[in-house]
C-alpha cells in the first residue's frame, strides 16, 4: 500500500462556488443543453443518448480496502484532482443528497466535463438537491481521460475517480457504494434491494407489511418492487425504493434515491408494466442506449445498443410511488432467483436466509457483464458493490433479521425444472407475494429440497411446480447443487459455521 495519505479529501477540491472555470449546480435544462450535440429527442420530448460504455466496468474497479493500492492507483485520484483544478477546463459540478434519514444521508458532489452534462442530468434527476453543505462524497468522472476504464475508490475519504467511462451507472453507483459502506460502519447493512409497503384489510382492520426484494439488476427487482399486486382500494401497494437501501439496527430501512429510478427498458411493455412504461415515455425521462430513430420513434423491444438500455424516470410519474423513501420497518425479505432447481417460493430460517444472502444466486445481466448475460452467477447479497469482508456481511444479515424478527423467502421468477420445465408467470408470482403478505400460504417441510415450501397458495396449483417431478435424476442434481454451494461458501473465511451448516 503506497502513499494513500496523498489521496485527496473532499475539502481539497476547488470550491465550486468561487472557481471561475466551474459551472456549479446548473439547472436541469442547462445540463441538457451542455450535451445537446449528442442528443436525440424522442417522440415524447425526452432526451436520448448513446454512450460508448454501456455497462459498469466491474473488472476495472478497485477500492483501497480490498486491494493493495500502489502508485498507479493513487495517481488516478491525483489525475482527477489536477483536472478539476485546471482553469483551462470547462468543469461542471453538481451536488445532490443520497438518503433522507438522519442516520443515512450524505451530500454527494460530482465533477465532470461540461460536454458530458448528460451524465449529470441523469444522475441529478435521481436525487434531491443539496442545501449548500460540504460534500461527504466526491466523484470525478472523466470519460476521455484514458483508452480503457480505470475506476478507483478510496472509502475512507469518500472519493471516487472514474477515468475512461461515460456510463451513467458509474456515477450513480460511486455514491451508493459508499452509502452502503457507511451504513455497515454504523452497525446496519447496505442492501442492493427494492422496498415497498403493502396495505391490507383483515378482521382487525388495516395493517401494513414492509417488503424488501434483493436481486441483481435486470432480474425483476424493479418490476416486483413497483407491482401493485392487483389490489383494490382501500388495499394497495406503495413503492418506496427501487435500488439501494440501508437496513438500520433500529429496523428502519432508509432509502437512498429521493427523486427518480434508473430502470432497465429493454422489453418494457405498456400492458405488463404500465407504470414504468408511462414514466419512461414522459418528457421528464432521460433515455440511455435505448433504440431511438432519427425522427424520435422509440423502440423499447430492440437491443440496438446492447441489452442494458436504461431510462431515468421521475418518482412523481409513478402512481405507486410513496411520498417518503424510508420504510419504518421491514417484515419480509425476498431473494429473487432464476435457479431451475428452486421452487416458486420457499420460506427460510435465519441461517438459511443468510445462506441465500451469501449465495446471491441469479443470472448474469447486461448491467454487469454483457458478454456473460444469461449465465448462472453468484454474487453475495446480489450486491456487486460490497466494500470489505463479504463473510462478515452474511453474519451481519443473519444477526439483523434475527433481532428484528424478519421473515425471509427465496422466490423463483424463472422456470421450475430442467426436464419439462414450467414457467413461474406473473400471475403465480403475484399470488405468492399477496399470499405471503396476507399470511394465507400453507407451508410444509420438503425433505427432498431441505426447504419449507407451500402446500397451498390461494390461486395456484402448487403441485405443478414440484421440483423433483420436473428434474430427471433429481437426487443427483440436488446433491451436486449442494456441493457446489458448499464449495462456494468455503471461500468466505469470516462466515460463521452455523450459516454454512444450513446450506440447502
Nutshell version of this structure?
The chain is an alpha+beta fold.
Question: How many β strands by DSSP?
Answer: 30
CA radius of gyration: 23 Å
The CATH class assignment of the domain at 4-44 and 54-187 is Alpha Beta
What sort of overall outline do the alpha carbons produce when their principal axes are compared? globular
Give the second-level CATH assignment, the architecture of the domain at 4-44 and 54-187: 3-Layer(aba) Sandwich
Share of β-strand residues: 25-35%
- Which structural class is indicated by helix and strand composition? alpha+beta
Residue windows where pLDDT falls under 50 for at least 5 positions: none
Largest sheet: 8 strands, mixed
Q: What is the CATH T-level topology of the domain at 4-44 and 54-187?
A: Phosphoenolpyruvate Carboxykinase, domain 1
Helix content: 10-25%
Instruction: Give the overall average pLDDT.
Output: 95
Description:
- By secondary structure, the chain is an alpha+beta fold.
- It has a domain of 175 residues: Phosphoenolpyruvate Carboxykinase, domain 1 (3-Layer(aba) Sandwich).
- Helix content is 24%, strand content 28%.
- The strands form eight sheets. Strands 1, 4, 5, 6, 7, 8, 9 and 10 form an eight-stranded mixed beta sheet that branches. It has a six-stranded mixed beta sheet with strand order 14-12-13-22-26-23.
- A hairpin with a 2-residue loop joins β5 and β6.
- α3 packs across α4.
- The protein starts with 21 loop residues before the first strand and ends with a helix.
- The relative contact order is 0.12.
- The mean pLDDT is 95.
Amino acid at each position: 500500500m503506497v502513499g494513500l495519505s496523498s489521496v485527496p479529501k473532499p475539502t481539497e477540491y476547488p470550491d465550486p462556488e468561487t472557481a471561475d472555470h466551474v459551472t456549479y449546480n446548473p439547472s436541469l435544462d442547462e445540463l441538457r443543453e451542455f450535451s445537446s450535440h449528442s442528443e436525440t429527442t424522442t417522440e415524447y420530448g425526452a432526451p436520448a443518448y448513446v454512450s460508448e460504455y454501456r455497462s459498469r466496468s466491474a473488472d476495472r474497479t478497485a477500492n483501497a480496502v480490498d486491494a493493495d493500492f500502489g502508485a498507479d492507483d493513487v495517481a488516478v485520484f491525483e489525475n482527477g484532482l489536477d483536472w478539476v483544478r485546471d482553469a483551462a477546463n470547462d468543469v461542471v459540478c453538481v451536488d445532490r443528497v443520497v438518503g433522507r434519514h438522519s442516520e443515512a444521508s450524505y451530500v454527494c458532489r460530482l465533477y465532470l466535463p461540461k460536454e458530458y452534462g448528460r451524465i449529470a442530468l441523469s444522475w441529478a434527476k435521481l436525487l434531491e438537491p443539496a442545501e449548500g453543505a460540504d460534500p461527504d462524497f466526491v466523484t470525478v468522472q472523466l470519460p476521455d481521460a484514458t483508452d480503457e476504464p480505470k475506476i478507483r475508490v478510496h472509502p475512507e475519504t469518500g472519493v471516487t475517480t472514474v477515468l475512461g467511462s461515460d456510463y451513467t451507472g458509474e456515477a450513480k453507483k460511486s455514491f451508493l457504494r459508499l452509502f452502503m459502506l457507511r451504513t455497515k460502519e454504523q452497525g446496519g447493512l447496505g442492501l442492493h434491494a427494492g422496498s415497498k409497503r403493502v396495505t391490507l384489510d383483515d378482521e382487525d382492520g388495516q395493517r401494513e407489511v414492509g417488503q424488501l426484494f434483493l436481486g441483481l439488476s435486470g432480474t425483476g427487482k424493479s418490476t416486483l418492487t413497483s407491482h401493485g399486486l392487483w389490489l383494490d382500494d382501500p388495499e394497495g401497494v406503495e413503492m418506496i425504493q427501487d435500488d439501494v437501501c440501508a437496513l438500520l439496527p433500529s429496523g428502519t430501512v432508509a432509502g437512498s434515491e429521493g427523486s427518480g429510478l434508473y430502470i432497465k427498458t429493454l422489453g418494457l411493455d405498456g400492458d405488463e408494466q404500465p407504470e414504468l412504461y408511462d414514466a419512461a415515455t414522459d418528457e421528464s425521462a432521460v433515455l440511455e442506449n435505448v433504440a431511438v430513430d432519427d425522427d424520435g420513434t422509440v423502440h423499447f423491444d430492440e437491443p440496438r445498443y446492447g441489452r442494458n438500455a436504461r431510462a431515468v424516470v421521475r418518482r412523481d410519474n409513478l402512481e405507486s410511488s410513496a411520498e417518503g423513501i424510508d420504510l419504518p420497518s421491514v417484515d419480509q425479505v425476498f431473494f429473487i432467483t432464476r435457479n431451475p432447481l428452486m421452487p416458486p417460493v420457499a420460506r427460510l430460517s435465519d441461517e438459511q436466509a443468510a445462506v441465500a444472502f451469501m449465495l446471491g444466486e441469479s443470472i448474469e445481466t447486461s448491467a454487469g457483464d454483457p458478454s456473460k448475460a444469461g449465465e448462472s452467477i453468484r454474487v453475495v447479497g446480489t450486491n456487486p458493490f460490497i466494500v470489505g469482508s463479504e463473510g462478515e456481511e452474511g453474519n451481519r444479515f443473519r444477526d439483523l433479521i434475527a433481532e428484528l424478527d424478519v421473515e425471509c423467502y427465496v422466490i423463483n421468477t424463472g422456470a421450475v425444472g430442467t426436464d419439462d420445465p414450467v414457467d413461474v408467470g406473473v400471475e403465480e408470482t403475484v399470488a405468492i407475494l399477496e399470499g405471503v403478505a396476507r399470511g394465507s400460504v400453507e407451508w410444509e417441510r420438503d425433505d427432498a429440497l431441505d426447504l419449507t415450501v407451500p402446500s397451498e397458495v390461494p390461486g395456484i396449483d402448487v403441485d405443478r411446480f414440484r421440483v423433483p417431478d420436473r428434474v430427471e435424476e433429481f437426487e443427483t442434481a440436488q446433491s451436486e447443487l449442494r456441493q457446489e454451494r458448499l464449495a462456494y461458501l468455503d471461500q468466505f473465511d469470516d462466515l460463521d459455521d452455523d450459516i454454512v451448516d444450513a446450506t440447502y
